[in-house]
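testing teh design pipeline on a random one, pls ignore if ur not involved
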């Protein structure tokens, strides 16, 4: 037990210590850590909970403190909250009673000072709707009174102007009269008008006096009310900041933990603690993440005899059986020594691409004022300021999937379809590595917008993206390499904002074809979730399952992206996978994280193990030593100030000559945002969006005219893409946009007549 405070603490001090609190008749008194500060008495289960979880708080300004016996005392605020407490000794109880009485006296005194003596409302904090309603009625009454006084002043002002003008005319006429019979009549008129002017002036003076008196009477109360509002706002901001810091602290603590507390590792202790937690009256307010799904399989080191047998076969990596330890180095050596490998430094100078972009400006934006109107809506249909964006288009984000193109280069050289499947699966996982810190939203491409990524001289590939649909937004992507592989995908993004998190669901498929083996692979993307939209630091998670299928051989790789859980024993962002042939026999196990690296292991033997937590029988794989197949490239220096862009992402929006007029690099709002001119970027973004709406309405009108004519009409959404055409894929049975050719030839000729003017 911690040392108690001195017997007579000052009212401004914070008083802390252990007390026993009554919970229920089953568990009786339980030891809790109490903190007395600023007229509030709060308690926690342990001292460690002070940074994040308060179990209850009572305001001493409205509370009653009663002593029961030598060690027990009761604190109640009228029935809503009652704490039955017990100290370890009579001396300790008296110290607490003294501290509580002093804190209560100070809280009552501070509350009395904040209330005006003439306030009609009760002198209690506005904790109920009744107090707030009384204050609102008083303010409205005061405003009506002041308004009537202002109207009186306006009336007096009009009368003074009227009678003053009449008096001036009478004086002028009086000066013009010499001596005549009408002198008496003129003098009487002047006297009457002077009297009216005096009466009106007195009324004006009285009205001003009343207004001044009323304003002075309420000035002090308004100043106090304004100060209270300012203090409340400051306290709210500090509370939000503290919540964000506590959340980040919890996140780092749980993600950095390698073992669980004893209560989780020991089922008996866990059950006991669970019963104890349920006894507190406020414990049902806690929320915990769901426990992670049990692993479907377990890997154990293979018998040494398998290592000895496979160690003599250096070329076994490319055999139909699969990969083994020494073969990885052999394959990498053969790939490095291949004369077909690009040697740009010897052939011709490689273009020096940029390594920095302007730092991200620090613009303040009230996030909640915008996002509160987006709950439950499709974000692609809501205009958003560039403050939420990063200076890249969605087409450029799709092209970032090619950052680890070397995996497909190696896959194209593989002699075994199962070996090739491992590389394709690793490439699938690698496409998510660039998203770990990228919380900014990419620009929604305009209909017909394109993006080319020509790395033929540098890396042996080039790709083209085009926005082929606007509602729903869909982008088509085609990439081909000199190494003999082709990647194509059509992605439609669906997103929903749920208040605390944002879910992004990619719809569509990705396909990869290899010329040498005619292997045809396809897979889909998992769901991306952005957490802490309102409070705390934004962080991204990937969760779901991916099936990579080889439609020629029937091979399959089942990848599982584990969702983040506070109570998981595994590392965060974990990915596991099993490569099986057409008969369902497992050959390889893949494991790692989608933000760092992936490893593979050859399976030598498999067997059924014991049942898991849900009664499912888990498979035990005996594997050879794991070898690394992919590792994430480090971020460039200063990436945190450049939207956490990778080295490839920094070059995507770099201006290039000869690209199509519809290329993302020519988009003005995106360029302005990259340069840090966000106000201009927002204005330009609104202009482009309005221009796109006008074009769509015109296309709808033309479609209606065509439909009314004898000739066949087209629906306004049936936009004809420039470089892609919709075809049925017989291998996968899917319909998607496939590159029809002509773009690179048009670039060589410099002929872009087919491109519309979209910017």
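output:
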């Amino acid at each position: 037990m911690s040392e108690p405070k001195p017997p007579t603490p000052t009212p401004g001090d914070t008083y802390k210590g252990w007390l026993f609190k009554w919970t229920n008749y089953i568990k009786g008194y339980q030891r809790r850590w109490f903190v007395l500060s600023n007229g509030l008495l709060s308690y926690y289960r342990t001292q460690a909970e002070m940074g994040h979880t308060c179990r209850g708080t009572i305001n001493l300004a409205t509370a009653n403190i009663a002593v029961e016996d030598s060690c027990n005392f009761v604190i109640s605020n009228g029935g809503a909250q009652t704490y039955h407490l017990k100290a370890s000794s009579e001396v300790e109880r008296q110290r607490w009673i003294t501290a509580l009485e002093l804190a209560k006296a100070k809280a009552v005194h501070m509350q009395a000072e904040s209330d005006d003596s003439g306030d009609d409302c009760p002198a209690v904090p506005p904790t109920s709707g009744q107090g707030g309603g009384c204050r609102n009625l008083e303010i409205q009454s005061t405003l009506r009174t002041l308004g009537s006084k202002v109207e009186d002043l306006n009336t007096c002002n009009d009368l003074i102007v009227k009678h003053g003008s009449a008096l001036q005319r009478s004086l002028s006429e009086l000066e013009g009269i010499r001596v005549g019979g009408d002198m008496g009549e003129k003098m009487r008129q002047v006297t009457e008008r002077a009297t009216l002017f005096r009466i009106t002036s007195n009324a004006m003076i009285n009205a001003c006096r009343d207004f001044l008196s009323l304003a002075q009477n309420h000035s002090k109360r308004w100043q106090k009310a304004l100060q209270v509002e300012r203090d409340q706002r400051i306290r709210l901001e500090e509370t939000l900041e503290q919540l964000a810091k506590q959340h980040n602290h919890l996140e780092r603590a749980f993600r950095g933990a390698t073992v669980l507390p004893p209560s989780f590792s020991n089922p008996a202790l866990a059950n006991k603690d669970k019963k104890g937690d349920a006894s507190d009256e406020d414990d049902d307010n806690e929320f915990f993440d769901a426990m992670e799904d049990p692993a479907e399989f377990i890997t154990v080191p293979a018998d040494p005899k398998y290592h000895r047998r496979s160690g003599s076969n250096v070329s076994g990596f490319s055999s139909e059986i699969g990969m083994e330890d020494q073969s990885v180095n052999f394959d990498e050596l053969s790939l490095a020594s291949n004369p077909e490998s690009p040697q740009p430094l010897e052939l011709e100078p490689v273009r020096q691409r940029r390594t920095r972009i302007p730092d991200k400006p620090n613009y303040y934006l009230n996030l909640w004022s915008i996002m509160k109107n987006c709950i439950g809506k499709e974000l692609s249909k809501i205009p958003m300021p560039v403050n939420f964006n990063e200076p890249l288009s969605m087409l450029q984000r799709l092209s970032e999937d090619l950052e680890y193109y070397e995996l497909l280069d190696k896959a194209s050289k593989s002699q075994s379809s199962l070996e090739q499947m491992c590389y394709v699966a690793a490439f699938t996982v690698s496409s998510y590595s660039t998203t770990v810190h990228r919380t900014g939203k990419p620009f929604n491409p305009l209909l017909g917008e394109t993006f080319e990524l020509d790395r033929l001289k540098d890396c042996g590939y080039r790709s083209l993206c085009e926005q082929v649909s606007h509602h729903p937004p869909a982008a088509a992507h085609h990439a081909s390499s000199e190494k003999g592989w082709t990647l194509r995908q059509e992605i439609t993004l669906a997103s929903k904002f749920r208040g605390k998190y944002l879910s992004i669901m990619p719809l569509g498929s990705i396909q990869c074809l290899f010329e040498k083996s005619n292997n045809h692979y396809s897979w889909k993307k998992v769901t991306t979730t952005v957490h802490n939209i309102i409070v705390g630091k934004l962080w991204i998670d990937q969760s779901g399952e991916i099936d990579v299928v080889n439609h020629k051989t029937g091979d399959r790789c089942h990848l599982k992206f584990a969702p983040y859980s506070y109570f998981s024993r595994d590392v965060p962002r974990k990915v596991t996978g099993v490569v099986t042939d057409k008969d369902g026999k497992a050959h390889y196990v893949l494991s790692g994280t989608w933000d760092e690296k992936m490893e593979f292991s050859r399976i030598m033997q498999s067997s059924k193990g014991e049942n898991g937590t849900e009664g499912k029988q888990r498979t035990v794989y005996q594997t050879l030593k794991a070898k690394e197949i992919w590792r994430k490239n480090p971020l460039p220096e200063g990436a945190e100030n450049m939207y956490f862009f990778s080295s490839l992402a920094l070059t995507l929006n770099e201006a290039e000559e000869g690209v199509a007029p519809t290329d993302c690099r020519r988009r003005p709002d995106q360029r302005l945002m990259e340069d840090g001119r966000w106000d201009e970027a927002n204005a330009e973004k609104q202009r482009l969006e309005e221009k796109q709406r006008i074009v769509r309405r015109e296309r709808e009108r033309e479609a209606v005219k065509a439909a009314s004519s004898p000739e066949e009409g087209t629906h306004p959404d049936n936009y004809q893409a420039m470089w892609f055409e919709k075809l049925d894929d017989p291998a996968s049975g899917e319909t998607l946009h496939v590159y029809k050719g002509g773009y690179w030839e048009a670039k060589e000729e410099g002929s872009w007549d087919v491109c519309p003017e979209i910017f």
